[in-house]
Amino acid sequence: MTRVEREKLRRAFRPAQVELLFIGEAPPASGRFFYCRNSGLYRAMRDAFYSIDPAIDDDNFLEVFQASGCYLTDLCSKPVDRLDTKSREAARRAGERSLSRKIAQLQPATIAPVLRSINAHVSRAASRAKWAGQMIHLPYPGRWHQHRSAFIEPVAPVVRYRLERMTEALGHARYLSARLTR
Predict the structure, then answer these.
(1) What's the pLDDT tens digit per position in 108-132?
(2) Domain 17-180 - what CATH class?
(3) What is the pLDDT of residues 52-98, one digit of tens each?
(4) Most-buried pick from 147, 151, 169, 176 (CB within 10 A)?
């Protein structure tokens, strides 16, 4: 999948109003991608939503994610996970300006970097965007159960809140329909 195709797919799931902006480091070099439903971050995020509402599954997760005001973007537009430390840090620094523009455009209520090593970069981008809101710093879920648990624990209350707001905004019947759409 090309960068343009990835961004087109990502934009297809952008909510009208982004309330909770998750920020990853970059799309993985493996070609996996959150919005293709094939990445570890996708599975961990889906599991966080599932922990609140067991009706959420692969068939409806991205629609519920979007309907609840959640969106995922990246600090860097190109994969950085196979770069040496110095090049990776330079790519992160270079990504701050673009991320700052995205934050200024989206104006989310909450920002949640999903990798501790990008916290400073996200904070600088948010500051440059003159963004004021809540920031939740998350550990990357990784592939081990204890890492996923450490990710889900702080995400679950935020997800619960977003799902409650979605229910209020859509009305319970529309929410049930949205979350059960297959």
Answers:
(1) 999 999 999 999 999 999 999 999 9
(2) alpha beta
(3) 999 999 999 999 999 999 999 999 999 999 999 999 999 999 999 99
(4) 151
Helix (H, G, I), strand (E, B) or coil at 172: helix
* One-letter identity of residue 98: S
Q: Where do the structural domains in the chain lie, given as residue ranges?
A: 17-180
Cα–Cα distance measured from residue 145 to residue 138, given in angstroms and rounded to the nearest whole number: 15
Residue 76 phi, psi (nearest 5): -110, 140
Rg (CA), the chain: 16
Q: Give the DSSP letter string of 20-31.
A: EEEEES---TTS
Alpha-carbon span 122 to 57, nearest angstrom: 30
Whole-structure pTM over 0.85, yes or no? yes
